[in-house]
Structures are given as structure tokens and as C-alpha cells.
Prior knowledge:
Elements: E1 7-9, E2 15-19, E3 28-33, E4 59-61, E5 69-74, E6 87-91, E7 96-105, E8 108-119, E9 123-129, E10 136-141, E11 152-157, E12 167-172, E13 176-181, H1 187-190, E14 196-201, E15 223-225, E16 229-232, E17 238-242, E18 249-259, E19 265-274, H2 282-286, E20 291-294, E21 304-306, E22 308-314, E23 323-328, E24 332-335, E25 350-360, E26 364-380, E27 383-391, H3 403-410, E28 418-420, E29 423-432, E30 439-447, E31 450-454, E32 460-463, H4 467-484, H5 487-490, H6 514-517, H7 520-528, H8 530-533, H9 547-561, H10 576-579, H11 582-594, E33 601-602, E34 615-616, H12 620-623, H13 626-634, H14 652-664, H15 681-690, H16 693-696, H17 728-731, H18 741-753, H19 763-773, H20 788-798, H21 827-830, H22 833-841, H23 863-873, H24 888-897
Helix pairs in contact: 4-18, 7-9, 9-15, 11-14, 13-14, 19-23, 22-23
Amino acid sequence: xxxxxxxxxxxxxxxxxxxxxxxxxxxxxxxxxxxxxxxxxxxxxxxxxxxxxxxxxxxxxxxxxxxxxxxxxxxxxxxxxxxxxxxxxxxxxxxxxxxxxxxxxxxxxxxxxxxxxxxxxxxxxxxxxxxxxxxxxxxxxxxxxxxxxxxxxxxxxxxxxxxxxxxxxxxxxxxxxxxxxxxxxxxxxxxxxxxxxxxxxxxxxxxxxxxxxxxxxxxxxxxxxxxxxxxxxxxxxxxxxxxxxxxxxxxxxxxxxxxxxxxxxxxxxxxxxxxxxxxxxxxxxxxxxxxxxxxxxxxxxxxxxxxxxxxxxxxxxxxxxxxxxxxxxxxxxxxxxxxxxxxxxxxxxxxxxxxxxxxxxxxxxxxxxxxxxxxxxxxxxxxxxxxxxxxxxxxxxxxxxxxxxxxxxxxxxxxxxxxxxxxxxxxxxxxxxxxxxxxxxxxxxxxxxxxxxxxxxxxxxxxxxxxxxxxxxxxxxxxxxxxxxxxxxxxxxxxxxxxxxxxxxxxxxxxxxxxxxxxxxxxxxxxxxxxxxxxxxxxxxxxxxxxxxxxxxxxxxxxxxxxxxxxxxxxxxxxxxxxxxxxxxxxxxxxxxxxxxxxxxxxxxxxxxxxxxxxxxxxxxxxxxxxxxxxxxxxxxxxxxxxxxxxxxxxxxxxxxxxxxxxxxxxxxxxxxxxxxxxxxxxxxxxxxxxxxxxxxxxxxxxxxxxxxxxxxxxxxxxxxxxxxxxxxxxxxxxxxxxxxxxxxxxxxxxxxxxxxxxxxxxxxxxxxxxxxxxxxxxxxxxxxxxxxxxxxxxxxxxxxxxxxxxxxxxxxxxxxxxxxxxxxxxxxxxxxxxxxxxxxxxxxxxxxxxxxxxxxxxxxxxxxxxxxxxxxxxxxxxxxxxxxxxxxxxxxxxxxxxxxxxxxxxxxxxxxxxxxxxxxxxxxxxxxxxx
Length: 932
């Protein structure tokens, strides 16, 4: 065991315990204990050798369901009606009692928990049934990591004799789940498959603290199972849910939104584990003609994807009649005055139409609250619920944050209550921007249990198989290729595109100091065919078509570049011995894991994901001169401000260690390819000018020479030669980019129809482009999927790759139990843009999660665009929000709430110089930083 907080004895001598999520414990457990059984905690294993498996629990329990289970107890009182003879699990973590439903298949006990309709002000630790009155008495306390506020309590829980309306039996059939309820169910809701939501997932048993969720195929996340049909027995008590694809899983979570036969609402869940499938079908379990309904009538999408389809239409002036379609993460936008909502429309009034669906696990009643400036019409499930409502002209780009204030501001434009079903609900929002000034729109919703909040991107989906979306994506691909391939460096625009795509201002890497930084043989291979060296390289091959001539040019260019050396750093110590030190290499290996280098880079011999797009580091040893690699790791943007390489602000010792590790895993210097020893630097210098290298790259003492056609002459032409040729003969002496057919169509479309779009941009689109380009989702999840790092850690840990885990396998991590990085899903809504900009500039004087092994790197060239784009994407202003005056009375109440005995925030959060009370390994963000 790890921390068995409570034991239980059954009437036939069964022995039970709970255990807590932690190191070697992927989630909480409810254990059925037998002689000789082992329950997962490797550090308590005494026999020789480490165990390779464990005895499975009755049920795993996710910490979001019960943060910390305590004792288990059989109901041995006949005063508790239908619960007599059942097993209970008590919760310290959430102050609840759960009914444990269990069955035994092939000698293995499995089951799950259902919450009883009672909640306490403190965590429950111990309980017993009183033999005199037959009622339950329990006591509890509050220490840390619970969600209750009272320091302790002593409780009596009596059975009132009123209907429970809960499942009291669970059976896993061969094709679904069979539940027996304490009272009859309403047939109409019970047989409606949309009233159920089923998820399943596995955990990973490792030395880490807890485990993320993994689909059954090993990918991060959860599987969603469809309830194909729901059957109800004639007596109304037994329910069978048919689940195609049902298989053993460590965790399943079934949510239900039903009614009892007497009309009372039943909104509950079953949280359970499936070790074995039964031999009988669910139909056989019911054993009699049953009422049933299938899910065939529910809407489905051919290719479901997160977000909504957004069509933008110019309303007046030069934009009238022009349109554009793209995906939008939210039903929200903010367009500052004088700017465009899309690069394909000039500034001016516009109409925005979002189309898609709200996907709910369970149905419910909601109200919608539009906020902003302009006019809106809202249609839900083909019913107009808000018709041409004028939004308040007094709304600013920062409406009040409190739910009541949002509802008040929406005022008469709010909808009446709307019933949304479980599954897909169609949504269409049409927004007319005001005739002048900035545009602002955000769509909130509220429900009896949900205060007014923006409709989250986690529930918005659309049909991705859409021709207009494909057309919009192709237009954007053309712009992105034009910018990232530096086309405007050769094809110069008539006037600077000052307000256009920020990427047009990118400079290619400077060639200053090339001779100090790179090996000559690697340079010769690189200039010959960049994409043979790095598959996703954006630099074209510019050498002669004839192989022999190209090889000579490559040697000459490398010879010239090798002459571009800078001065030696005065007083720099000789680092060669440190770079070959085994101790340094091991330090670097740990740092490689802690910084998440695995999420963007692939070392030779490491396992790959399907469709792995990480960049290999096999060439690093052949490319870099060792001490220059140390310099690069310390300041990646020194010679290339727009580099995608993150700046981790490493110390010299850290950079030395990381360089030592990476160099030890690379290919030997000069392995394969061309030799540059015969090159002529004079001819190479001439080639740098003649081939146009100076257009993109800064070269000391060599100014660019313009010889390509200006940008204006390209407009409206259909290109099949030069850079956009499909073969070498028609390309001639133009650079060879190796464009695919889709890329060629996108670039030709840009030249023929959309050149004007290069002079416009909008920050949300810039941010979304850079989130992909910078691989932000390698470390940060978003609604469309979990972070890549998580999947790679799991894959690597399965194969014992050392870069998977920053911790020694037999030691407690020295940093923190909080190992996952924060998601990007709500970053634009919750974080101040000025703070995000400082974070990305590397200017924060503190680390928000001080003990997290990972660290947030800087991306200085992208900082402002990302900060502004994230905010505007959520319909928020990028301008710094003024801090409102502090109400001393409210501040005093807040100070009391964060203390022990109230919300207990101080357990995990430091407050200024006062450290978190629960200990350093549990500490997270210091409250002193929250306001900024």
C-alpha cells in the first residue's frame, strides 16, 4: 500500500481498504485484500526484485471524483432500507459517502461508486452503524488536499425512508452495462440514449505521482462510448445500456440525466472499473420483453472537429460582397477600430456568422447572453431564440467579469430558457458589427448550476468536411508559404507592408560568424539540398541543376562561409573537457527530460509516435562546433531573432550539460555527403551574391542585389514556371522549394487573387499560426487534444527511454507533484495580455510554478503577437486592463477565506513570503502574483 486511509471488514470476512493517488499509485484505489496480494506501491515491496504487476482494485477512483477516499463500511443495519447489505466508501477528499457496487467475475471483484445524496462540511474519515438505533455515525477532519472548509465534525446520518432513486446493482454484460435502481424509472427518459454519457480511459503505473488519462490505444485522453440503445425492464428498475466496443478499462464514467417514475429528477454518475466482461448479454440479463430505444435518430457529423465555422462578409465600402470562411474556436471576436476581422477583407463593417454545434455529455436547460457592440441573431436547434437584438453601445472591450454583471449587461438581449439535448445541438450566430468603431462580441450561457460564462471551446464542434473551409485553409496556406519562404525578399513590394503579415518582416538567419559556429562539411551538404538534411527546412536549394556543378558550388559556398568568423570571447575557459565529461552528459540528460526537449526533438534510436513531426537531433554533432552549440543554447535568437528554438535562459553550466548530452547522441562530424575541403572561398563569395543568398541572409559587407521581378508584376498571373514550376526544366535557375501540389495551388491562388491580403492581418490568426509553428501544443494541451509531451513520456516510459522521465526510478521527485503543464484552452480569457507578453519576452522576475521541473521559455520576436492574438481570439481587448480600486472590506473577507478553516488556499499557495503550508512538493503559484 501507499497510504491506506481506512480499512473495512465484510460479513463473510472480506477485507477492504482504500489507497491514495501518489508515487507508484496512478489513481485512488478501493482494494479487496487477500493473503499475499500486492497493491501497487513498489517502495513497500520487500521480496527480492521489483514487481512487474499488481493485484487490481475493485475500482480505481479518479481524483476529480474523490480526491482522497477513507474508510469502507458494510451497511449492517436494517434501518437503511435498500442499502442494507451494501458496501460504502467514505471520502476525506470531497466529504461524501459513495455506494460501492461490486460483482465478482472469474474470481476477480470489480465495481464502481455512486454518490449518495448527502454532503458534509468536512472530510469524512471514520464511520460506524450504531447497534442501538441502526443509524450511521461518522467523524471527519480537514487537513489538506480536500475541498471542505471545517476543521472537523461528528455526524449522524439517518435513513428517512424517502426514495433514493439510485443504482444499487451493477453487472458488466458482454455488450454493455446492466444497472438495477432502487425505484422504478420513467420509461421515456430511461430509454433515451441521449440521456447518457460514457467515457473510459486507462492509467499508467509508474513511479510518477499519479497518472494522466490515456485512451485504450495508448493516446492521451479519454475514449467516448456511444450508447447505441437503452432498455428498461417491465418493472422499471433494471436498465441495460448497449455499448458497442465495450472492453476492459481501468476507468469508466457513466453520467445519467433521467427521471424516476414519480417524475423526480435523477442526475447522478457511476464511476467504475471493468476487469472482465460477463458472458451473458444485457438482453439476457433483463430476461423479458423490455422497452427500448436506439440512438439512430441522433445527429452525427462525418468529420467532427472542435470549433465553429465562421463566415465573414463585407457589408459596406470596398469590402462589400467579399467573404472569407475559417474555423473559430469560440463564438467570440474583438476587432479594434481600423483593423480587419480577416486578412481577406479590408477594414470596415462586416457580418460574422458562426455555424456548428454544442456537444453536451448530458442535456440541460440553458440561457444565452450575448455581450458586445452591434446586433445579433441566435438560432439553436433551428429555433430562433434571439432575434436581431441590439447589443449595448456602452459595452466596452472589457465587459464586467462577474456572472451577474454579464447577465445584467446582456439585459433584454438574453434568451429565454432553452432545452439542450445530450449530444449535438445545432448553433447559428449572426453578428452585425457597428457601422463605425471597434467590433466586439462574446456569447455567454448560464444554467441553474452554471453561472454566466463564455461558452467554452470544449463543447463547440463543427463539420470539418466542408468545401468553404477547405477554400479558406488554402488561401491561408498560400499566405503562410509566401511569408515563411521569404518570397518578398526577392519579389519586393512597391511599398512596405507595414500593417501586413508580421512574418513578412522576418529575417532569415544571419551568416555572421558561420565559420565559428558550423562545421564546413555540414555547410556543404546543407547548401546543396537543405531538405535532405532537415526534412521541414524552409530554405530552398539554389545551386545549379547539374549534379557535378552543384557539388562544386556547394564546396565553394562552404569554403566562403567558413571564412566568416567572429572574434573569440575574451577570457572564455576551454570547455572541451566539460563537453566530454560523463557527469555533464548525465546532467544534460536529466535537463533534456525536464525541459521537454523530447516533445519537439527526436534522438536517434528513440521510439516514434504515428505521424511523428519532431525534428531529429541526429545531425547536431555534424552541424555544430561544440562551444558554439553552448552559445546557441544560451541565446538561440542571437543570429536569428525569429527562430522557433525556445530560449530557456539557460545558465552556462546548464547549456554545457545539455550540449554534452545532445552531442553524445549525434552522428559523427563529417559523416556522409560532400567534402568541402576543395572549395574556393572567392568563388563562394561571388555565388552568395549571384544566387541571391544576400536577399534573405545578412552577410557582412555584402548588400542585397535586386534581380527578381517585383511583387506587383506577379499579381493576376498564372504561374507554372520559375519558383512555382513542377519540374526542373521549367524552373530554370529559380530556387527549388520542393513544393507539393497542394502548396503550389495555394501559392498560385494567392498570386492570382489574394495578393492584397498580404498587406492585412489579424492578431488571432497570427497567434494560431504561431501556436502551430512554435509547436506550443507540444507542451500545452488545448481543446483539440492533449500535449505531445504527455504522449511521448508514456511511450518512452514503456520502452525505458532515459529521456522520458527526469526522476530516478527509486527516489521521490525532488521538485513537485504538479508535473503537467497548464493548457492553452483558456489562456486568452484568463491571463492579462501584458503579463503574457512579459512572460514570452522572458522578462518575468519569477517562475510562476517555482518547483515545476519544466520551465516556460521565451519567444521574444513572437511575444506581442501571441499575447494580443490570444486575448482577441476570446473577444478580449489586448490593452492592459486597469486594476480596479480595492475594497478594504472585501479584501479582509478574502484574506479570511484563504486561511485554514475556510477555503484553505494557503495549503497549496504561498502568500508573499508565507510558504504553502502543505509543503514544497505541493506548492504552486504564489498568490502575490495573481493580480498582475
